[in-house]
C-alpha cells in the first residue's frame, strides 16, 4: 500500500530572469515501511522535491496548483497550513544536510527535542525530557542523561546529525525524509549514520525517502529508486533492476560514472559529458538530449513520457515499447 | 519578481545549504550589479545640490543674511520666500549661508578624522603587537565618552568658533576611521601581494601607502559619508546649544534655538532650518547606505 | 560567569583612568590664563578670588600632581567646588542625575519597543512595501536631530493640542509618577533616532537569521510561523541587537543633554550647560566624568547580558 504518492509535482521559483522550473512534473511513490532513494546531480531538483513534500517552499518559490502530494489520505499540497503543521514533525519528519547549522545554537539539544515532542503531544516538560533522553540513547549518543543539556556547539557533526535524527523521530513518524544526511560528514561517520538510519527504519517500521547523489548509498539502503534529471524523474523502479538493467541512458551514464563493488578494471569510469540545462529554459524535447549519444530526431522535438519499461518506469524514446505518438507530452502535463 | 540571488536565499532558508539547487545564468548576476543603485543616486544628487547651494549662496539669495529689514517676523511671501526672523533678516538667505557653515564643518572634520584615523589604523594594523594594543586602548578611551557630551565640554573650553569645532569633531571621529582602517589592514596584510612585497624588502611605509591603502579605501569612504552625517548633526546640536559658530553668523541649530521664543507666532522660523538639516543628512546617509550596498557582495 | 565578569571589569580600569585624564584635561584646554578666564576679566590676578581658584585647582603644583590630587578627591566622592557658587559639585550632579537617567532609560525602552518589531517586520517583508516604508522611516529617524523633533513636537502640540503641557515641572523625588509622566514626550522625542538604529540592526540581523538552516528545521518540526520567527529567529537575531542597544545608550545619554534643554528639564544637561554659561568648569569636568563612567558601566552590563544570551561565548570564556 502506498504511504506517499506524489503526482505531477511542479515547484517553480519566480526570478527576475524568468520562472525557474526547479521541479517540473515529478511522480513518486513510497510504500509503507519501504525506502525510496532519490538520486540525481545537484540542480536536478531532488532537494526541492523533498522540501515540496513537506511544503517548506518559501517565496518566491511556489508549488503549482495541480500538483498532488497524497499522504495518508490527505493531499498535502492542498490542506491548510495549520493542518500541515500538525503533520510535520509528527507523521512526516525531515533530516537536513547540514548538521552544523541545522540545530539552533542558543538552545540545548534537549530543549529542541522537547519542543518537537510538545508541539504534537500533550505531555509535561519532565515527561518530554525523559523521552528526549530515551531518544538520544536510541540514536546512540553516549551518556544521554548528560548530553541532553549540551548545546549544539559542544557536539561533533556526527553527534549533531544523530540529534537531528532523534528530533525527527520524536513522534515516531510514518515517513522520514532525509536530504543528503551524510554529505557534510566524514566518511567513517557517514557509514555510522547510514547504519543508524537503517536500523531505526527497521525498528520503527517507518518509510524513508533518502535523497542522495551517491549511488553506493542507494544500493545499500534503498528498496526503490527514482532518478531525477532536470526537474523530472527520468527513471524509477526497484533498486536491483535499475542497477542491473538501467532503462534510461542517464541512469546508465550515472552508473558508469561511479565505482561499484564487483567492478572489473575492464569497465573504465566515465564522466557524463556536457552540462545540466538551465532551469529557466528547459529544452523542448527530452531534457537529456544534449548529453545523450543515441539521441533521435524525435528526442529533440517531444518530451518522452514516464512509461513502463523493464521492471520499472523510464522516460526515454529509445525504449521501443512506447509506440510513436502515444501519450503525447504526458510527462509535460 | 525576485532576482535569482533572493531565490537562492529562499532555498537556503528552506534548508538547502549553500549550493544553488538549480544552476543560475551568469548574465543575470551581472545585470543586477549594473542595476541603478537608487539610494546612491538620490543621495549623491542631494549632496551635490546642497554643496552647490552652499557655494552659490551669495548669488542665489536675494538678501544679505545679516541685513536687517524693516519687516521683522514676516510670513513667507514672494519677497521673502521663507519669511524673516525677529530682526527682519531673510530666512532663506540665512539657511543658505548656514549650509556653508554646516558643510564646511562636516567636511573638514570628517577629512581630519579620515586622515588621522587612517594613519593610526594603518600603523596599528601594520605594526600589530604592542603598538597596536596601545593605540587601540587610547581609542577605547576616546570612544568611551558619549561623543556629543565631550564635544560640548571641549568646544566650551576651547571657545566656540569654526576651527575649534573642526578640531574637536575631527578628534572625536578619529577612532571610527582608525578601527575601520585597522581591521581592513589586518586582512589585507595577509594577502599574497603584500606578503610578496615584504619578502622583496619593500619599505613598510611604501607597502602601507602603495599596497595596503588602495585596498582599504572602500570601507573608509563609506565611513566618511556616515561620519559626515554625524558631524552635521553634532554641529547642529552644538549651535542649537549656543556652542556653534557664533552669531550673527547664521547656523541651522542657532536659527532653531532663536525661533523657540516666537514659535507660536512664527512657526516657519523653526521648521525650515530643521528641514534643511534633515534634507542634507538624509543625502549623506543615502550615499553611505548606497555605497555599502554596492560594495557588499551579499546584497 | 563571575570569572568572566571579573575579567571584563578588570579591563575597564585602564579605560576609566583614561577617561578621568581626559576629563581632567578639559579645564586645561582653556586658552590663555585659566584663572583670568574662570574668574572673569574684572578680577585682578592677585585678588582673593583668583587665589582661591588657584588653590582649589592646585594650579601652583605641577600638572601630574594636580591630576593626582584631583583623582584622589574624586575617588573619595569629592569632585571639587563650584567656581561660581563655591558649593561642592558632587551633590549637584546627584540631584540632577535621576531626571537624565529616567529620560535615558525611558527612551531606551521606547527605542526597543519600536525598533524591535519594526526590524522584524521589515526583515520578514524584505523587498516589499512594509519593508520600504519602515526603512524610509528609519532613514528619517537617523537623519533628524532630536532637538528639532522636540521643537517641532512642542510647536505642533501648542498649535493643535493647547491643553497638553509640554513644559511640566519634573520633581522625581516629590512626585515620581507625575515626573515620569512629564518625561514621556521628551523620552519619545529622544527615542526616535535610537529606534531607527535598533530597527536597522534588527532588520539586518534578522535577515541573516532567516537564512539559517535551523529555521527550516523548526518549521519541519511542525512549529508555526510566528513561533519560528520569535522563538528561533528573534532569539538569535537579538544577539547583535544587544550590541546596538549598548551603543544607543551612550547616544541617548548625550542626546538627553540637548533634549533637556528643549523641554526645560532639570537634568545633568541643564546643569552642565548652565555651568558652561557661567564658566564653571569644575562642574563641567565632573559632569563629563560621571556621565561617561555611567556609560562605561552600561556597556559592561550590555556585555554581560550578551554573555547570558549566547551560550557559545560561555564555553570560550
Automatic annotation (TrEMBL), chain B:
Residues 99-288 form the ABC transmembrane type-1 domain. It comes from the Bacteria. The chain crosses the membrane at residues 40-60, 103-126, 138-159, 221-245, 265-288. Keywords: Cell membrane, Membrane, Peptide transport, Protein transport, Transmembrane, Transmembrane helix, Transport. Pfam families: BPD_transp_1, OppC_N. The keyword Nuclease does not apply. It is found in: Cell membrane. InterPro entries: BP-dependent_transpt_permease, MetI-like, MetI-like_sf, OppC_N. The keyword Hydrolase does not apply. GO terms for biological process: peptide transport; protein transport; transmembrane transport. One of its GO terms (cellular component) is plasma membrane. Belongs to the binding-protein-dependent transport system permease family. This is ABC transmembrane type-1 domain-containing protein. It comes from Bradyrhizobium lablabi.
Automatic annotation (TrEMBL), chain C:
The chain crosses the membrane at residues 9-30, 101-124, 136-162, 182-201, 237-264, 284-309. One of its GO terms (molecular function) is dipeptide transmembrane transporter activity. It comes from Bradyrhizobium lablabi. Residues 97-302 form the ABC transmembrane type-1 domain. GO terms for cellular component: plasma membrane. SUPFAM superfamilies: MetI-like (SSF161098). It is a multi-pass membrane protein. This is ABC transmembrane type-1 domain-containing protein. Keywords: Cell membrane, Membrane, Transmembrane, Transmembrane helix, Transport. Its main location: membrane. It is found in: Cell membrane. CDD domains: TM_PBP2. Signal peptide: none annotated. It comes from the Bacteria. Belongs to the binding-protein-dependent transport system permease family.
